[in-house]
Amino acid sequence: MIWSSTLRIATAAILTVLCMLILHPNPAAAAEPLRIIVFGAHPDDCELKAGGVAAKWADQGHKVKFVSVTNGDIGHHEMAGGPLAKRRTKEVQTAAKILGIETQVLDHHDGELMPTLEIRKELIRLIREWKADVVISPRPNDYHPDHRYTGILVQDGAYMVTVPFICPDTEPLRKNPVYLYLWDHFQKPNPFEADIVVSIDDTIERKLKALGEMPSQFAEWAPWHGDYLDEVPTDPEEAKKWIAERFRGRMKGVAQKYPEELAKWYGTEKAASVEFAEAFEICEYGRRPSDEELRMLFPFFSGK
Questions:
Q1: Is the peptide bond before 145 cis (omega within 30 degrees of 0)?
Q2: Could you tell me which residues are beta bridge partners of residue 39?
Q3: Average per-residue pLDDT in the chain?
Q4: Which domain holds residue 135?
Q5: CA dihedral 203, 205, 207, 208 (to 10 degrees)
Q6: Per-residue pLDDT tens digits for 28-78
Q7: What is the pLDDT of residues 238-291, one digit of tens each?
Q8: How confident is the model at residue 7 (pLDDT cuts 50, 70, 90)?
Q9: Residue 303 domain-assigned?
Q10: Is the confidence at residue 1, as pLDDT, over 90?
Q11: Per residue in 77-112, is it b (16+ CB within 10 Å) or e — as a string?
Q12: pLDDT for 212-227, tens place per residue?
């Protein structure tokens, strides 16, 4: 009788699991949504480095927030101050709607960011309020001081987000999130190491559309600063297409740079067909995830 009762309970449990799998083929979809927060120094940094994977998370019902730590108020050759900050905020808000995420621009001056205790606490509060499972930022070695200091501010909040008596006005996290770095090409003092490479073939067009909504940077400031402004079409819609083609090649380059890493996550056959990718490095100051946990945090490695 005991064996029969145990068998019935086990059978019921198996049937329950099978029903859950039928209703939710992706186990991650049946769980609580993941919560991801990405920090960039300027309004366009997050979109440029993580727009594709953000859209993938959003498509599965997970919650993503982009935060620009400065307001970008000097990133132009013809305008600055409040008008530029407002323009760039509007641009990232439009991009966020395309990607299906939330966005926020903090009111710190572009080019003047410092790794102060006050701003560190501000970011700790944002991470706690978002209840982040994953926190992503630039690495602290980069050509731009705002990029470097954003990386330092974010990584200095790792572990501290779990300490109750710092920023006691916000509830501490019960476990340290997984902290990741955005891809870059800088070599000194140490090069970027791609621990996670994600195919964005299915979201590349949305990412490029989002970048096209940032003409202040990609059709004006960067071309002027790089002395190729005469290449940009004067028609706004043609300029968006021009922006898309420039960044299409860059995203293709990331996939071409990391074939072995793609194969690790997708398998050799699927990895060979990936055209566009974004890459991330694990920051050792956050929780050190296993490969199994990373597959849960990036619940799309079974497909593109």
A1: no
A2: 67
A3: 91
A4: 35-297
A5: 160
A6: 444 799 999 999 999 999 999 999 999 999 999 999 999 999 999 999 999
A7: 999 999 999 999 999 999 999 999 999 999 999 999 999 999 999 999 999 999
A8: very low
A9: no
A10: no
A11: eebeeeebbebbbebbeebbebbbbebbbbebebee
A12: 999 999 999 999 999 9
The token pair that represents 74 in the structure block? 């000097």
Residue 69 main-chain phi, psi, to 5 deg: -75, -25
Residues 6 or more apart from 42 whose CB is under 8 A from it? 68, 70, 72, 75, 88, 110, 146
Q: What are phi and psi of 179, to 5 degrees?
A: -105, 135
The DSSP symbol for 184 reads -
Is there a domain that residue 179 lies in?
yes
The CATH number assigned to the domain holding 175 equals 3.40.50.10320
| 47 SS3 class | helix
Of 160, 182, 140, the residue nearest 279 (C-alpha): 182
CB-CB contact of 39 with 69 (8 Å)? yes
* Residue 72: inside a domain: yes
Residues 200, 157 share a domain? yes
Give CA–CA dist 197/262, Å, rounded.
6
Do residues 212 and 244 touch, judged by C-beta distance below 8 A?
yes
DSSP per-residue string spanning 116-179: -HHHHHHHHHHHHHHT-SEEEE--S-SSSHHHHHHHHHHHHHTTGGG-TTSSTTSPPPSSPPEE
303 band by pLDDT with thresholds 50, 70 and 90: low
* Together in a domain, 14 and 143: no
- The residue written with tokens 């043609």 in the block is 238
